[in-house]
Amino acid sequence: MPKGTRLPKNAETFDFYDPATCVAISVKTIDTRTAARIKEPKQIYSSMKRNIDDAANFTGGSKGTKIINSSMISQREVRIAVPKTTTPDQWEQINRAITYGAEKNINVKITVVK
Fold first, then answer.
1. pTM here?
2. C or N terminus of the chain, fewer CB within 10 Å?
């Protein structure tokens, strides 16, 4: 992300906002290695859906001197990091959430991490 796009810590919903492109980005991690998420992969979809809904329903917020509102945003993104050990059943739920995001006009990007 370009310098100066990081929103203050604990800003509502979004972590980055680029005024040049009007893109607001929420950055999350999901630990798919927990026993509960291995046993019940649908928990991953539920978690991602909440993040997507938060991004879709965001109307505005301020933290410190940074203020953004929905009229300033042309594209909303949710970027999620998941471990490389994510199982095929879990990937099915992740892909389901990506489709849901597209239906809500939210660009969902997944990054695989160690």
1. 0.92
2. C
